[in-house]
Amino acid sequence: MSSILSVSQLNKYVAFKLKSDIKLKGLCVKGEISNFSINYNSGHAYFTVKDELSSVKAVMFSTSVGRLKIKPEDGMLVIVTGNVELYEAGGVFQIIATDITPLGNGLLHAQTELVKEKLRKKGVFDESNKKLIPIFPRRIAVISSMTGAALQDILNIISRRFPICSVDIYHTQVQGEGAAESIRDSLRLADKGGYDTLILARGGGSLEDLMPFNSEIAAVSVFECKTPVISAVGHETDTTLCDYAADLRAPTPSAAAELATPDKIELFSAVDKLRLSLDNSVNKRLEKYVSSLDRISARLTLCSPQNRLDNSLRDVDALSKRLDSLICDHLRSKEHMLDKNAAALNALSPFGILSRGYSIVSKDKSIIRSADELNENDVITVRFSDSSVTAEISSITRKEENI
Question: What is the spatial distance between Cα 31 and Cα 52, in angstroms, rounded to a whole number?
């Protein structure tokens, strides 16, 4: 009967066996990375290496992580180098990885990441360096292959959306050996052509086909262009270093043509709306100005010298009529008073008394009021109502003498 082992004893025995097997040291395992993560506190990396049938856990300690020349990502095909051990506490069979080397596209991806990091440090991808794409371009240069479908898509869309824009084509090798240099030369030549916008484009392809656009030569050439550059390389899911370096990235060549030009239909519609808005604004402003002019005209008429003169003339006429009326009233009042006084005067007038049979006696033009004022032989004048006579006093009879 075999001996009975505890779980700890079993795991310790298996761990010993694995460590002592020289074939499991410095082992290289090919597979695809899955669930890659780095612990924030320890810096250790944890991931799974798998193929179509199986998977194995792997851990890479922080010292080895710091020496990696690539950034491992899920789905990357790699060769993991390390020792096979058993984690005794959990009974987990795992690889203690010391290095990760990409294979196939993984290698290309790793190379691209290295160039990307280098260019990032140089500021090639900084948003602050991005130039604005002109809204209404007059001239556009397309840097692409003359035989590619991407070029025809761009030309068709530009001619439909904004036909007044002229387009020049710079034939460029877009894949294979020497493609990066061809892209660089075409960009530099087009940048000197006085264009409003440059479109760098090619259709879809494998990662290997797109590698010229991931080269440092092409990306730096895009960055150094004085003319705004729209990059449209590959399909929507493809992103190259030229896309990062460009002023604007388009998901497809067709989208690049749309981003580079306005739509004439939208422009016509916008112009119609602006014209209508302008007409409304002008009409409202004219109405406002006419209303203001009417108010000012009314105030001007009210305050004008002619209006003031007319008002003054009307006031003078009114005052003149009032004065005439007052004068007439005053004259009538005075005339009435005169008549009254005349009647009273006539009533008291000596001439009135004379008409009743009385007479006025005067001597030397002085009225004689009493016989005491006369002497015999005085010459007197006696005035009647209709005439006067001169008489000489022959005698004077006094009242006392009559008694």
Answer: 9
Which run of H or of E encompasses 239? none
Residue 35: its pLDDT value, please? 92
Residue 15 CB-density burial (10 A; 0-12 exposed, 13-18 middle, 19+ buried): middle
Cα atoms in the 13 Å half-sphere on the side-chain side of 303 = 6
Helix locations, 261-349, DSSP H: 264-303, 305-348
What pLDDT shows up at residue 107?
A: 64
Q: CA-to-CA distance for 302 and 258, rounded, in angstroms?
A: 63
Residues of the chain with pLDDT under 50: none
Contact present, 65 and 93 (Cβ < 8 Å): no
DSSP-derived 3-state class of residue 216: helix
The predicted-structure confidence for 93-111, as pLDDT tens digits, reads as follows 999 999 988 876 666 777 7
Beta bridge partners of 361: 382
Q: Where are the alpha helices (DSSP H) in 44-178?
A: 62-65, 105-122, 149-161
Q: How far apart, in whole angstroms, are the C-alpha atoms of residue 214 and residue 244? A: 10
Q: What is the pLDDT of residue 400?
A: 62
Q: Is residue 350 within 8 Å of 369, Cβ to Cβ? A: no
